[in-house]
Amino acid sequence: MTEISNVARLSEPLKFAYWVPNVSGGLVVSTIEQRTGWDFNYNKKLARIAEESGFEYALTQTRYAASYGADKQHEATSFSLALLAATERLKVISAVHPGMWHPGVLAKFIITADHISNGRAAVNIVSGWLKSEFTNFGLDWLEHDERYVRTEEFIRVLRGLWTETEYSQAGKYYNITDFTLNPAPVQVPGRAHPEIFFGGNSTAAQATAGRVADWYFSNGKDLEGFKDNIAGVVSSAGESGRGTRQGGGGALPAPRFGLNGFVISRDSEKEARETLREIVEKAHKPAVQGFRDAVQEAGPSTRDGKGMWADSTFEDLVQYNDGFKTQLIGTPEQIAERIVEYKKIGVNLFLTGYLHFQEELAAFGRDILPIVRELESDLARSHGTELDLSSTPEAKTPAKEEVAV
Length: 405
Ligand SMILES: Cc1cc2nc3c(=O)[nH]c(=O)nc-3n(C[C@H](O)[C@H](O)[C@H](O)COP(=O)(O)O)c2cc1C
What we know:
By secondary structure, the chain is an alpha/beta fold. Helices cover 40% and strands 14% of the residues. It is built from 14 helices and eleven strands. The chain has helices spanning 7-10, 40-52, 76-86, 103-116, 131-135, 144-163, 203-212, 223-239, 269-281, 285-294, 314-317, 332-344, 357-382, 393-396; strands at residues 15-19, 57-60, 91-96, 121-126, 167-170, 175-179, 195-199, 215-218, 256-265, 328-330, 349-353. The protein binds flavin mononucleotide (FMN).
């Protein structure tokens, strides 16, 4: 991918999402103080703060058993639905494992969520790494690349049932015959159906996402790592004839890219670095080590050894989605500059995590987002275009006094 692959993309503002803390223990496996709750009331307030602070999406995690210290977990689809009902504009992406759900049942569930929320439901299809969740439930645990064979069929069923009537699909894992789901999803301009996000880093994951995902989510990466990671997705999308989002070519628009980053914004870079040092120093070592053992089922188990967590150090794993690697750490200005560097290489959306979610997410919207928008405007102008802010959450948020946290 060239530095700036198309000028049109520069007129599109970056989008922002946050991890819903629907599991206990926060986003870092550390005994450092984390003023982050995992219960519904905490999350309801957080979601409302988020939609007032410039966030377009929230992402729930799917977890059935303790891992990385997350001893207690709320189920993702029901939690997402409740958050949709509690908000006005936020889109809520629910993580889902193929293998735990039948795609027809999920398609129906999400249509209902979409109607309840007036077109704001979305899914993140994750192929899984925590083997015991499957085997202790008595479910099949497929070998790594085979999980993606099933995932691809699963996504094709979802899209088929959301966009067609009398839909049929014959495959290795799912067989659908003449099925029509009524009602269909809500018609939203610019959206063909509830958006399909996809998480996975391995070669098989990239190839699958390139063929069928609307959005590819990456774990935290440095700039070079992100370029490497999306190259496989871009090439698979091209091979399968997917067009550009400007409307040319294949049946599906080209995939878009989301990147995870753990945000530590402080008045000085020194303070921010000090906070990172404290998080890592106070890491819950047995939990991080247990997580490290469990994720051997992911990227490290592949034939080419590439994939999620394959090259993660102990320090990286303290944020269990490698969020420190993205280095959104420093002053608001430094973080905003870094964010725009990633935009230049193809990131469309940032998925963010924090130590103290309610306070720091509000601070992100107040202190960092306006600088990002200024830098994005400058970047667009320097390439002969204008940043179009009309569709951003900020533009749609009614003016009101600052949200109290
Ligand atoms: C943004 C993102 C969110 C994810 N959320 C979950 C989740 O909620 N539950 C889960 O079991 N795995 C989740 N995963 C992990 C995937 O299930 C998958 O195991 C992982 O991406 C490893 O894929 P790989 O081995 O193909 O690289 C997520 C991955 C990403 C990138």
